[in-house]
Every structure is written in C-alpha cells, then in structure tokens.
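We close this part of the discussion by returning to an individual protein. Part of our work consisted of pairing the sequence of a single chain with a tokenised description of its backbone. The amino acid sequence and the backbone structure tokens for this protein are reproduced below.
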Amino acid sequence: MATSAHTEVPGGGKPQFPPFNKDTFASQLVWLAITFVLLYLLMSRLALPRVGGIIAARSGQIADDLAEAQRLKEETETAIAAYDKTMADARANAQAIAAKTRDKLMAEAEERRKSVEGRLNQKLEEAEKTIAATKAAAMSNVAGIATEAASSIVERLIGTAPAEKVVADAVADSLKR
C-alpha cells in the first residue's frame, strides 16, 4: 500500500476548501448565524455594559478631575490676588515707613544744624567781642606808642625833646582824621 499525504482524499487529489464545499455550506451558515447571535448576546449583555460602565466611570472621573482642577485654579488665582494685595500693602507700608524715617532724620538733622549754627554764632559773637576788646586795647596803646614814637622822632630831628602835651595833641588830631 502506498502512503499518501493526509490531505489527500481517497481516490487522489486534494479535498475542496471547507467553506467552499457545497455539501457543508448550509450547515456552516447555520453555525455562523448561531455563533454570531451568541457572540452578539454575550457582547451586548456582558462585555459592552462593562465597557460602557468603565467609559462612564472614566468620564465621571475626568469631569470630577476637571472640576477639581477648576476649583484649584480659582483658589490659586485667589491666593495670587491676595499675595499681590499683600505685596502692594507691604510696599506702601515700606514707603510710608521710609518717608516717616526720612522726615524724622531730616528734622533731627535740621535741629542739629540749628544747634551747631547757634553755638557757632555764639562763638563768633564772643570772638568779635574779644577782637573788639583787643582792638580797643591796641588802639589805646597805639596813641601812647604813637606819642612816644613822634616824640623820639622829633627829638632826633631837632635835638631837643618836645613838650608831651603838644605831641599828644598832635597824635590825637592825626588819629581823629
């Protein structure tokens, strides 16, 4: 006996492809319809509701996440606005403190300047009085010195000492002019 391939039909040749076999075509259509209906029922009753539930849950979760993100965004904007207001208040407060401190320091500096100016004016007045006293003393000595000098000069020139009264009158007359 000759061995043949298991795909060969007794009597030779290859068998026809099963879906194209006209003897089994009707039964295959029935089984296709039964399988399709069972698969459709299985999918529509079990798998699709679960997938739909998952999609609905995900949609709900996404909606909740978006709502939470919006809420957090509003909180952030509120916090930023509060921060900006606080910063503006702090800047204004700092400027007010700086202005107050500047005014206070300017007033203190002005007060010190006036105090120093007053002391300097007082010292200046005292110096002027001292100068006037020294000048008066010097001027009173000038008359005596001028009288002595004139008397010495005249004595050298003419050889005899002039009268003190005449020299004193001449010096006084000269100083008045």
Summary: The CA atoms of residues 74 and 80 lie 10 Å apart. The mean pLDDT is 87.
